[in-house]
Design goal:
Elements: H1 8-32, H2 56-64, E1 69-78, E2 83-92, E3 96-103, E4 110-115, E5 118-123, E6 128-132, H3 145-154, E7 160-164, E8 167-173, E9 177-184, E10 190-197, E11 202-212
Antiparallel strand pairs: 1-2, 1-11, 2-3, 3-4, 4-5, 5-6, 7-8, 8-9, 9-10, 10-11
């Protein structure tokens, strides 16, 4: 990290930029990290018409085997006061998960890397890096498809899967929220992921514009 201070005003601006970056990191991590899983209550179902040759077991196996992917996504986070939208690129492997924010402009270039229990946040525009060791919620991040896959695979006997209008819908019903992944029946690719609260209000909406496994 390096900054050349030519004059006091520029130095003051750099300090303000650093403070703004730290605040931004805190907000981003809070927004995209959904804290603790509550005790789950699930029910196995198989509804809708079978429109392909795949069986429900085969669709389950499809989800179980997702381990790495590259994606371009739109993320909308809803709160009681406002709505925030982000355009991101994601790259996930078995060893690490990386996302880079493309929009909005004020956070463009922010890159967040999850590796083990460490989170690294980089701002290429400001040449700043923040590292969080032993980050407690690194494995509970709804914004990554890999998080959904992990939970679905670990609790497979308690999950819900449906075939409705050309989509395979995988649902996890938590005590305080419901998570649903929509997979296109023809392409076999995820189209959207929705997290709803107990009032059926969407608090997180992810649209997969492009995804490759």
């Amino acid at each position: 990290m390096f900054f050349c201070i030519v004059e006091n005003r520029k130095g003051e601006n750099n300090i303000k930029n650093k403070k703004a970056f730290i605040i931004l990191v805190t907000i981003v991590l809070f927004v995209i990290s959904f804290t603790i899983f509550i005790k789950m209550n699930y029910k196995n179902t198989n509804t809708g018409n079978n429109k392909t040759n795949k069986t429900i077991d085969e669709w389950n196996e499809y989800i179980y085997n997702i381990s790495s992917y590259d994606a371009e996504i739109e993320v909308t986070v809803e709160s009681n006061k406002n709505s925030n939208k982000y355009v991101m690129k994601q790259k996930c492997t078995e060893n690490e998960s990386i996302m880079k924010i493309m929009e909005p402009e004020n956070v463009r270039g922010v890159k967040i890397t999850y590796r083990g229990n460490k989170v690294t946040v980089e701002n290429t525009a400001l040449n700043l890096t923040q590292i969080y060791e032993n980050y407690p919620f690194v494995k509970d991040n709804r914004i990554f498809l890999s998080d959904f896959v992990f939970q679905y695979r670990e609790k497979s006997e308690k999950t819900n899967i449906e075939e409705i209008e050309g989509n395979i819908i995988y649902t996890i019903n938590l005590e305080r929220e419901t998570i649903s992944l929509y997979v296109n029946e023809e392409t076999g690719k995820p189209e959207k992921l929705i997290v709803q609260d107990n009032n059926k209000k969407a608090i997180l909406y992810i649209l997969y514009n492009k995804i490759e496994f």
